[in-house]
């Protein structure tokens, strides 16, 4: 879910930026919450990730989930005071209706984990669970940043020149112009504060670069972006995004989700076809062996585990949502993304930006 293809010279830049370790201001560490019941193979990847991330980040990890499933996995492991198990008796299943079960299953692992953030006992929450459940629990437990109309699910996309931010990728299928403007503001702050992109270039995803292109939503949103203080460069097609001409691309959640899933499908197709072609004859096998370092770099670039989870921007707390197929590596990187956001003081920056550029809720448009 949180990845797309790239071919070009941005591999080293991309990986260095994602792995840059918290050269940002570091304050007294607060725990990060990891939902132990999120991934498809829970809780084994989460347990391993908690121990690895605690050691790598020297940060306490609250592992929230069902004790009877987690405790057997802890047997034989050296005790690490930086990993603390917190019991959550209920699980949000993939088939659960998010809004209803966020309230009915009040003791689910997401709810208990987010309560720790709300109570100031942890700085961020990370899950590889149901995206709808994460959204519902976030709104119910943490609420929105004052002034934010709708939260947006964000992802990092590799590009020819490095990387870009895309939002919304599925939290809001239907949007209003003000929603998209706020997505642009929040995406720009995330790109600058966490990923270190100075004065990020922001664009609206459309079917053409010219002003006046796009559907009704894009056309009505364009003037709001022009009048904002964002570094708005206009409309952009997907080719501008992946060529690295755009740092933050903004769209409604339906369009964004289709963009991401299409990119994933193309990425998989390229890798599968390349593998078949390179192993079809003795000559191509020899050539593949010589080019193996380049192919490994390309495969690593297309590996969604390197990115980890995506932030749910607009929630009054740091919430990161990863793919259900997340393994230990993906979850460790998800926890690293959360730590980067903590050290960048992302939440306070988002609040300041929303209040400065838009004011408090209800001034321009109904939510």
Q: Describe it for me?
A:
By secondary structure, the chain is of the alpha/beta class. Helix content is 46%, strand content 15%. It has helices at residues 11-19, 44-57, 67-74, 98-104, 109-118, 131-141, 177-193, 216-227, 238-243, 253-278, 282-290, 292-301, 328-343, 346-358; strands at residues 32-35, 61-65, 83-87, 124-127, 152-159, 162-167, 201-205, 231-236, 248-250, 310-313, 318-321. An eleven-stranded mixed sheet has the order 3-2-1-4-11-10-5-6-9-7-8, sandwiched between helices. Strand 10 (310-313) and strand 11 form a beta hairpin. Helix 7 packs across helix 14 (346-358). It starts with 10 loop residues before the first helix and ends in a 9-residue tail after the last helix.
Helix content: 40-55%
CATH topology: Isopropylmalate Dehydrogenase
Oligomeric state of shown chains: single chain
Number of DSSP strands?
A: 11
Low-pLDDT windows of residues: 1-14, 20-24
Q: How many structural domains?
A: 1
Share of residues in strands: 5-15%
Radius of gyration over C-alpha positions, nearest whole angstrom? 21 Å
Labels describing this entry:
367 residues; alpha/beta; Isopropylmalate Dehydrogenase; 14 helices; 11 strands; 46% helix; globular
Summarize the structure.
The protein has 367 residues and is an alpha/beta fold.
SSE map:
Layout lengths: L10 H9 L12 E4 L8 H14 L3 E5 L1 H8 L8 E5 L10 H7 L4 H10 L5 E4 L3 H11 L10 E8 L2 E6 L9 H17 L7 E5 L10 H12 L3 E6 L1 H6 L4 E3 L2 H26 L3 H9 L1 H10 L8 E4 L4 E4 L6 H16 L2 H13 L9
Parallel strand pairs: 1-2, 1-4, 2-3, 4-11, 6-9, 7-8, 7-9
Antiparallel strand pairs: 5-6, 5-10, 10-11
């Amino acid at each position: 879910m949180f990845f797309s293809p790239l071919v070009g010279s941005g591999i080293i830049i991309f990986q260095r930026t994602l792995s840059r370790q918290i050269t940002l201001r570091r304050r007294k560490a607060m725990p990060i919450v990891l939902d132990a019941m999120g991934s498809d193979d829970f809780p084994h990847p989460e347990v391993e990730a908690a121990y690895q991330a605690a050691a790598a980040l020297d940060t306490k990890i609250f592992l929230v989930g069902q004790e009877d499933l987690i405790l057997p996995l802890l047997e034989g492991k050296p005790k690490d005071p930086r990993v603390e198990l917190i019991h959550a008796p209920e699980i949000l299943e993939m088939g659960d209706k998010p809004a209803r079960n966020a309230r009915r299953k009040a003791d689910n692992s997401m709810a208990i984990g987010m309560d720790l953030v709300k109570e100031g006992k942890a700085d961020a929450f990370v899950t590889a669970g149901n995206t709808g459940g994460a959204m519902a629990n976030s709104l119910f437990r943490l609420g929105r940043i004052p002034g934010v109309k709708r939260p947006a699910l964000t992802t990092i996309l590799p590009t020819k020149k490095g990387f870009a931010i895309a939002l919304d990728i599925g939290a809001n299928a239907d949007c209003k112009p003000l929603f998209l403007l706020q997505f642009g503001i929040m995406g720009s702050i995330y790109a600058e504060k966490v990923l270190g992109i100075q004065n990020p270039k922001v664009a609206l995803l459309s079917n053409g670069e010219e002003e006046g292109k796009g559907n009704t939503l894009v056309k009505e949103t364009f003037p709001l972006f022009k009048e904002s203080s964002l570094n708005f460069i206009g409309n952009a097609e997907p080719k501008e995004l992946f060529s690295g001409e755009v740092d933050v691309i903004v769209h409604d959640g339906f369009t964004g989700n289709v963009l991401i899933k299409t990119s994933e499908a193309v990425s998989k197709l390229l890798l599968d076809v390349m593998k078949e072609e390179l192993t079809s004859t003795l000559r191509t096998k020899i050539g593949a062996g010589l080019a193996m370092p380049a192919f490994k770099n390309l495969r690593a670039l297309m590996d969604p585990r390197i990115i980890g989870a995506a932030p749910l921007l607009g929630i009054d707390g740091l919430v990161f949502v990863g793919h259900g197929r997340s393994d230990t590596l993906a979850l460790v990187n998800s926890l690293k993304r959360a730590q980067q956001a903590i050290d960048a003081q992302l939440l306070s920056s988002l609040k300041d930006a929303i209040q400065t550029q838009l004011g408090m809720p209800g001034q321009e448009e109904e939510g």
